[in-house]
Amino acid sequence: MIDLFYVVMHLDTGGYRLFRLDRIEQIVRVSDGDKRWSPNHYSLQELREHTHLMDRGSMTTFRFNAWGIYPQTILDQFPQSQMIASCERDGYLFEATAKDMGATMWLLSQGPKIQVVSPPSLVAKIRDDLKAMLQYYPED
Questions:
Q1: Quick one: DSSP state of residue 139?
Q2: Of all helices (H) and strands (E), which one includes residue 6?
Q3: Angle 43-49-52 from CA coordinates, rounded to 5°
Q4: Residues 77, 83, 86, 89: what is their CA dihedral angle, to the nearest 10 degrees?
Q5: Which contacts qualify for 23-27: CB closer than 8 Å, 24 or more apart?
Q6: Phi and psi of 75, rounded to 5°?
Q7: Side-chain half-sphere of 78: how many Cα atoms within 13 Å?
Q8: I need a surface site. Which of 61, 65, 66, 127 has the fewest CB within 10 A?
Q9: How do the pLDDT tens digits run along the chain, 140 residues long?
Q10: Cis amide bond preceding 120, omega within 30
Q11: Model pTM score
């Protein structure tokens, strides 16, 4: 089991961002006033209750292209991943190792922002799942 530690930061534009502590390289002090706890505070427990676990299936190493997704999001989702190269349309090629069923759930949740490129067995699984999903959306 991998334990990840996160830091939660409130944004001036509203909302919150989650950062992995082991990926923070520098902390810069910003004196923009003292931000006190508010009734709309961030609940890490609530986040944990709404995050699916990636602990399903067999361990597999796979590669995928990603477009329009902040790279840190992918690196956080798959802690053993790495960005391999840039790809077309300002995207990136990633390599990750994770349990295949949980990874497939996350990859499919990203819609057209992800293209799995290897291994062929995972590409086929994604293709089969997408074909099955299309049956729920017949053309009128």
A1: -
A2: strand 6-10
A3: 130
A4: 0
A5: 23/72, 23/75, 23/76
A6: -65, -30
A7: 25
A8: 127
A9: 455 666 777 777 777 776 667 666 666 555 555 454 444 544 554 444 434 445 577 888 999 999 999 888 888 888 778 999 888 888 999 999 888 888 999 999 999 999 999 999 999 999 999 999 999 998 88
A10: no
A11: 0.61
Pairing state between β 91-99 and 59-66: antiparallel
The Cα 116–Cα 120 span in angstroms is 9
The position carrying tokens 């609530």 is 46
CA dist 39 and 99 (Å) reads 38
Amino acid in position 47: L
CA distance to 26, 109, 127, 136, per residue, from 139 (Å): 51, 22, 19, 10
Decide: 10 and 34 in contact? Cβ < 8 Å.
Answer: no
End-to-end CA distance of the chain: 47
3-class DSSP assignment, residue 23: helix
* Residue closest to 22 by CA, chosen among 10, 6, 9, 2: 6
CA distances from 32 to 35, 73, 119 (A): 8, 27, 49
What gap in Å lies between CA 78 and CA 72, rounded to an integer? Answer: 10
